[in-house]
Amino acid sequence: MAYTKCTVKGKDLLSVADLGRDDLMRVLQGAAEMKRKGPEPLLEGQTLAMIFEKPSLRTRVSFDVAMSQLGGHAIYLLGDEVGLGKREPMSDMSQVLSRYVDIIMARTFAHSTVGALAQYSLVPVINGLSDLEHPCQAISDLLTIYEKKGALEGLTVAYVGDGNNVAASLLLACALAGIDFRFASPQRYGLSDEVMTKGKDLAALSGAQVISGNGPEAAVDGADVVYTDVWTSMGTESEREQRRRDFADYQIAQELLTKAKPDVILMHPMPVHHGEEFAEGLIDSSQSVLIDQAENRLHAQKAILVALL
Length: 309
Description:
There is one protein chain. By secondary structure, the protein is of the alpha/beta class. It has two domains: 3-133 and 296-308, Aspartate/ornithine carbamoyltransferase (Rossmann fold, 3-Layer(aba) Sandwich), CATH 3.40.50; 136-294, Rossmann fold (3-Layer(aba) Sandwich). It is 43% helix and 13% strand. It contains twelve helices and nine strands. The strands form two sheets. A five-stranded parallel β-sheet has the order 7-6-5-8-9. Strands 2-1-3-4 form a four-stranded parallel β-sheet, with helices on both faces. Helix 7 (165-177) links the parallel strand 5 and strand 6. The longest helix is centred in the last third of the chain and has 19 residues, at 290-308. It is globular and about 55 Å long. The two termini are 17 Å apart.
């Protein structure tokens, strides 16, 4: 099945689970195909509006280049420029913007903001990151895992670290794809009950397992992929020193990796704090696929744009 047969045209992508299992696999297939073929004008004449409340390197450049390679055009808008409910009601702003463009991507602080955009928009809305989820990251992560491992079903991903938006989307994506997901974090930093329940429900359908509550060693034991993220995300900078203490035993170090499979790969959405989430030197080791993972944001987002348009 090719990416042109996705059944999500005209829909929003606010959560990775919005795709469903079949369409997730089609998007991944489309991303791999686009990566092989290179630029192709599948969205010629179409325009993407990119709204940013949070700064970004990978999200901004990958979406902009994606639209360019697809023959379309991207417009960069700062949150203050469009108001996002401050200068005028969200309903007015979203409806007007969606009369100008064909699709909207928003990188926001609050998930309710991207949700309100989608509620009133006349065109598809993509969650480029919110406080609850980061679906585009999770989709590109699965593409990277597939490239490195040659399969998805039956693998084990161990996530060690903060139960943030990246962890939530990765859990849901793994559950959809039939990947066992193990999660380890300090107390107070776990995933929400809602995400855990949703992930376990999806995993029951795909034959995967979702396991949490154990320490890093139990999570990493026999894992094919070890994944982590920053301990201090944007918006939690005031907690940095406390978080460094709380996560000290959750650093990915070589000793911990002896519990994983010999061909384990290391993943991180970036930006990464060298010597913090990973012990010094691991990011540059042969086990690290961080740069390939970052590149795949471009290819995954091209497939997402085509699927929704």
